[in-house]
Design goal:
heterotrimer, A mainly alpha, B alpha/beta, C alpha+beta, B: alpha/beta, 2 domains, four-stranded mixed sheet, 13 helices, 13 strands, globular, C: alpha+beta, 3 domains, five-stranded antiparallel sheet, 15 helices, 44% helix, elongated
């Protein structure tokens, strides 16, 4: 049965979702808000937590999103909305994908490797895209402890090198910096939209409407702690520190003797990141399939979508900055539209089909 | 599922496996492996008329009999170019070795090079994703190339001999002030725009060891004629806005380390009317900060020490009882520390090197005052030093 | 359907026609009253002494009627079954059970006097325990069943025997505990066993292919053991067990990956020690799979993974090696596999020599000659030792090690990360008889984690594993 449990959902929110925010987001936040980087992140987390609460309210109907849409708008319009949603997922998938590509090239190789080394990701992603929600839940179960151990390990190694006074003076970036940071980091916050794809696939239980946002905020607290350590370690050169989690722990004193032991944690977090990066693609694949009323094998959808994304990755290989500027600074508003407004709109959808009038 | 589709996964698997095996055998994704790589242990940067000369000290692992690894020696290769990147590319072009900077643990800067903003070339290393910013920085007397190329008296390679000067143990003695590329960059890009690095002097050691094998022979330019070098790093070069502006003497370096609270095993000479003593520092605390109105620079040093009476040789009993610091020695030591800190401060203020990052401290603690004052000119601060020396009981 | 007619000569001929082989013999004898009997038996697998003692001798003085019940009462053999169908009778003869025919009766008696060649019950070489029972299954099904029965003296223990193999007609027994094993699993296994249509079933491992949902999977999907104590413990947890005649290896289903990291000994030592050894086993397997791969990835793509001093030592060692690091590692690994394979198959006295030659040639001479480097040999040696820390998984782990090496040599560390992710995703998504094979890690089952990588006190394990969906949840009163 294609079901995901409450625990798996919470694990995803608290332990898996934060991993996607540890690569380029810290540097981006520093770029926009300097030492006030924690506040835009917190704002986005609060926004998302609210949106997640809305998703949970919508999940009380125990209907899947395609069912709700069909009940409200009819088959064709419902399918059209699902196609739109799937395109949003693909759009949201693009930046994490590039992020991971850059991360891989920067962290796992000593010299810039060919793009081909990144291609196996799409094979794995295609495999994951063909899997139902229950598999996603189980993988979350597995990813959660890995993420916690790796995250804690990296923090333990990096806290001794952090000077938290670097976070002062609070408010130096001003309201402008805060708003800029919040807006420019929205592209990293679309977890509520991912949850939207899962409604009806988990049983709503009492209290989920506050438990789920709380779990998300717990993950958020971990990310904010990470950002604080990150800025404490790098302070005025934090802006240059892309791939934050791969760099933060290298100043630990034992590393000069033992070698880069932090790589153990980096590899573990990368494992979780691989999963998180493929998730929007998986959600998009499932949404597209739902739009076409589950016609055709999921494997074919998965293969086709990943082939397109591989082609896009090749095409835009050297245009990272342009893509980043467009997604994070120009078209950032698309993210709150789908991840905050859509969950609110989902509350208005009909649980039961509209009665046909003669 | 239709028959061709049914077989698709297994065919795809076969294709992937074959592709993987092929790429495994071809072993080429445009990458370099260990056999084609030059592991750079240290880089020396010197200014030339056209640009820069980069001297890379490359590790040459010597294979011992039977295929097991033997001792490591170093070979120095230089390249020139308008930029550091060009100079490194020249090394690659001339030797066929790909210089890998990831293990570069020392960037040695020639004295002349530091007359301009060192970040005109250090930026290359800082921006390089394939270079570790934990590497040490040092300024040297004369040319970096000359120091790296000459054989070291105490180690197989000059870089590892120099590295010993920057060890944790050396830092605890208080006579070297270490910095890394990252820390230096943090100071440079921060509001204080200042930094420091150890200043290296090389001295000839006439009775250089004859052993050292291959390493010394390969060690370069000075082969055969120059004798081995020993180094000192107890002076500290001060930088303001990336330029070398002043040099701290050995005592001032020690005072700086005391103010940073880093000294745990240093010794400190004190002369009193009663005779000469050595204070053995066991523990130390220190701080340097601007006062609340940003008018004074407050320095505070607290030292816990043992004393050695250098006047008369004593028996075991006397030595043991004489370890307690006499009050007169403690006062004299305090005076001496205060005097050295003041001289250190004078150098900093004169050269506009915010060694203690006072501007940064003010910026972080009181942004309004910092803005009101338009930063924190060091000359506007009057120093106030408080030193306390306590002996063991 | 051809049946026994009561005409002794024609019945014996009909049976002989069905069984024309030379080792099928007829043993004619008469009672003192002149009533003729013929015992049809297979030479070599029938206990002729018992046939004479328990069948022929009592019938000599028989003076009763031709009725089967009267004849049966006269015989002293405890296992007697009447049968009319000639084909089934022929099958019994082939199984070693002689068939007794006599004049005037349209029914024959199958006599259970087969000769059973068995080796003694001994400790299995593949599953040695320092503490705990040392008995192991043997090739005889009945003996194996008795070993199980001796440990589970409950009427709930059920044996269901199937005959599988068109030509081998191998007996396969399904064992389970009624009320504990989920009925859905029992009926599913029963259905799959009944549907098996093969020519010959040489070993229980053949059954795995028919009993698992992903027969082509690289990863193991059925538990195996040679020890009755482990077999019974698994059955008592809610699994079904399968014993096959002629095989000392028993299967258990559904399979969980974690069970291969558990050893019977873990339950006879302190929980701390058990936890330590389990973690050690996991570490050993990880070393076996990942060490050669990371070594290669580090050398080819990311030198920083190795501390500088070690790197320089390695660089010194591989300086004059003609092969690339990846090919060198592949070569050494393949040589290890070949040596391993050869030393298992070789007779013991040759095996000893082989291991000496292997150690000398690989370890010393090859390194001296500059074919391979010393670090590569050390890495492979570590990996080789680690592989055998979990003997039940060696087949899977050795292939995984090779796969990891291939991706490490071609894609680098990222390849290792991706392949690991794929394996984990695959494990998470795989189910066997409705039980996720990677439980209790995925899906995470808190209670079952108490006997996974860590082992809690016995008193904390009062419930059967939740993952197995047993109907009877509790196996122990709280201690």
């Amino acid at each position: 049965m294609d079901k995901i449990s409450q625990r798996q959902l919470f694990f995803f929110l608290a332990c898996v979702a934060p991993v996607g925010k540890l690569v380029l987001l810290p540097a981006q936040l520093v770029y926009a808000s300097a030492n006030d980087l924690l506040f835009p992140a917190a704002a986005n987390y609060l926004l998302q937590a609210g949106a997640i609460a809305l998703v949970m309210l919508a999940a009380r109907s125990e209907r899947t999103l395609p069912e709700l849409l069909e009940n409200t708008f009819g088959k064709i319009a419902g399918s059209a909305v699902m196609v739109c949603l799937s395109f949003f997922y693909f759009y949201a998938a693009f930046f994490p994908l590039i992020e991971q590509k850059l991360f891989v090239q920067g962290v796992f190789y000593d010299t810039l490797p060919s793009l081909l080394v990144f291609s196996p990701f799409f094979v794995l992603s295609a495999y994951l895209c063909a899997k139902p929600a229950s598999a996603i839940g189980r993988i979350s179960d597995m990813a959660a402890p890995v993420s916690v151990v790796a995250f804690a390990g990296l923090l333990v190694l990096s806290v001794p090198s952090a000077d938290f006074s670097a976070l002062n003076p609070v408010g130096a970036a001003g309201a402008d910096g805060f708003l800029r940071g919040t807006a420019w980091s929205m592209s990293w916050f679309f977890d509520s939209a991912l949850l939207l794809a899962l409604i009806g696939k988990f049983r709503y239980r009492k209290g989920m409407v506050w438990k789920a946002p709380l779990c998300y905020l717990a993950g958020g607290a971990a990310v904010i702690a990470f950002l604080a350590v990150f800025y404490g370690v790098f302070s005025d050169i934090a802006l240059r520190q892309t791939f934050a989690f791969a760099k933060i722990a290298k100043y630990f004193s034992a590393i000069s003797v033992l070698g880069r032991i932090d790589y153990v944690f980096i590899c573990l977090l990368s494992l979780v990141m691989v999963f998180y990066t493929a998730l929007p693609l998986q959600a998009g694949t499932q949404a597209l399939r739902a739009a076409f009323r589950d016609k055709g094998s999921p494997a074919i959808y998965a293969a086709a979508i990943n082939a397109v994304f591989f082609a896009l990755a090749v095409l835009l290989n050297d245009r990272f900055l342009a893509v980043q500027e467009t997604i994070t600074k120009t078209l950032f508003w698309i993210f709150p539209l789908f991840s905050c407004l859509l969950p609110a709109a989902a509350l208005l959808l009909r649980r039961t089909p509209r009665e046909k009038t003669a | 599922m239709k028959r061709p589709l049914k077989k698709l996964p297994s065919r795809l698997f076969l294709f992937l496996a074959a592709f993987l095996f092929f790429s495994f055998l071809s072993n080429d994704f445009g990458l370099v492996d260990i056999q084609k790589t030059a592991i750079v242990l240290a880089a020396g940067i010197d200014r030339t008329e056209e640009g820069y000369e980069v001297t890379a000290q490359i590790a040459v692992p010597s294979s011992a009999q039977g295929g097991s690894g033997g001792a490591t020696s170093g070979v120095n290769i230089s390249g020139e170019g308008e930029t550091v990147a060009e100079a490194i590319a020249q090394i690659y072009a001339e030797t066929g070795w790909v210089p890998k900077l990831i293990f570069c643990n020392l960037i040695l800067i020639g004295e002349e090079t530091a007359e301009e903003d060192v970040f005109s070339f250090l930026g290359f290393f800082l921006r390089n994703e394939y270079m570790s910013d934990t590497c040490r920085l040092a300024l040297c007397e004369g040319k970096a190339k000359a120091i790296l190329s000459a054989p070291a008296a105490v180690d197989d390679t000059s870089s590892s001999a120099l590295e010993k000067l920057f060890s944790d143990a050396a830092e605890k003695s208080g006579y070297v002030a270490n910095t890394t590329l990252k820390d230096f960059a943090v100071g440079y890009y921060g509001v204080s725009e200042s930094g420091f690095m150890p200043y290296i002097r090389a001295m000839e050691q006439p009775a250089a060891k004859s052993a050292g094998g291959q390493g010394q022979e390969e060690n370069g330019a000075a082969q055969g004629k120059s004798s081995a070098l020993v180094y000192s790093a107890d002076e500290t070069a001060l930088f303001s806005r990336g330029k070398f502006v002043a040099l701290l003497a050995r005592e001032e370096t020690f005072a700086y380390n005391l103010l940073c609270g880093k000294v745990f095993a240093g010794s400190f000479p004190v002369e009193t009317d009663e005779g000469a003593y050595s204070l053995d520092v066991l523990k130390n605390k220190g701080s340097a900060r601007p006062d609340e109105r940003a008018e004074r620079a407050l320095f505070s040093v607290s030292v816990r020490a043992r004393v050695y009476d250098r006047n008369t040789p004593s028996g075991m009993k006397e030595i043991t009882s004489a370890e307690v610091v006499p009050p007169s020695v403690a006062r004299e030591a305090e005076k001496r520390i205060e005097k050295t800190v003041l001289s250190l401060w004078e150098k900093c203020a004169d050269s506009d090197c915010d060694l203690f990052f006072l501007a940064r401290q003010l910026y972080r603690s009181d942004l309004r005052l910092y803005r009101e004052k338009g930063g924190l000119p060091l000359t506007s601060l009057s120093p106030s030093v408080q030193a306390e020396v306590v002996g063991i009981r | 359907m051809n049946s026994v007619t009561g005409n002794l000569t024609s019945d014996a001929e009909a049976l002989k026609k069905l069984l024309p082989a030379q080792d099928i013999l007829l043993f004619p004898f008469e009672t003192e009253a002149g009533m003729p009997f013929i015992a049809v038996y297979a030479d070599g697998i029938t206990d002729k002494e018992l046939l004479g003692e328990q069948i022929a001798r009592p019938l000599r003085s028989y003076r009763g009627s031709v009725r089967a019940d009267d004849v049966r009462r006269r015989l002293t053999c405890p296992e007697l079954r009447p049968q009319k169908d000639l084909a089934l009778l022929a099958a019994e003869v082939l199984a070693g059970n002689p068939v007794l025919l006599w004049e005037g009766m349209d029914e024959a008696l199958v006599t259970g006097v087969k000769k059973v060649f068995t080796r003694a019950v001994a400790e299995p070489p593949t599953d040695v325990a320092v503490k705990g029972p040392r008995e192991g299954f043997i090739e005889d099904l009945k003996t194996n069943m008795s070993l199980v029965r001796r440990r589970l003296k409950t009427p709930d223990l059920r044996f269901e025997t199937f005959t599988i193999g068109r030509r081998s007609a191998t007996s396969v027994t399904l064992c389970f505990l009624e009320g504990i094993t989920p009925p859905s699993v029992v009926s599913d296994v029963r259905k799959r066993l009944a549907a098996i249509d093969v020519d010959v079933l040489p070993d229980s491992s053949y059954l795995t292919h028919f009993l698992v949902s992903r027969p082509r999977s690289l990863l193991k999907q059925a538990g195996t053991t040679e020890k009755p104590d482990i077999f019974c413990a698994k059955i008592a947890e809610g699994r079904v067990g399968i014993l096959a005649d002629g095989s000392p290896v028993a299967l258990t289903l559904p399979y969980l990956v974690v069970e291969d990291f558990q050893s019977s000994e873990d339950y006879f030592v302190s929980p701390h020690r058990a936890t330590f050894t389990r973690v050690l086993r996991l570490f050993a397997v990880l070393v076996a799979i990942y060490l050669p791969a990371f070594y290669i990835a580090a050398q080819l793509f990311k030198l920083q993974l190795i501390p500088i001093r070690l790197l320089l030592t390695i660089a010194g060692s591989i300086q004059n090696i003609p092969l690339s690091p990846s090919l060198e590692m592949l070569l050494v690994l393949l040589l290890l596999e070949v040596l391993n394979e050869a030393s298992i198959r070789m007779p013991k006295y040759v095996g000893m020599a082989l291991s000496v030659v292997g150690a000398l040639v690989l370890g010393e001479t090859a390194a001296r000659a500059g074919f391979v480097s010393t670090p590569a040999i050390i890495i492979v040696a570590f990996s080789g030792i680690g592989l055998y820390a979990v003997p039940n998984l060696t087949e899977t782990t050795s292939v995984l090690r090779l796969a990891m090496l291939l991706v490490a040599g071609s894609v680098g560390t990222y390849g290792i990360v991706l392949l690991t992710a794929f394996l984990l995703f695959y494990l998470a998504a795989t189910e066997n008889y409705g039980v996720p094979v990677f439980a209790p890690f995925s899906p995470m089952i808190g209670r079952d984690l108490r006997d996974s990588l860590v082992k809690y006190n016995l008193s904390s394990l009062s419930r059967r594993p939740v993952a197995l969906n047993s109907r009877n949840k509790r196996r122990m009163k709280h201690g």
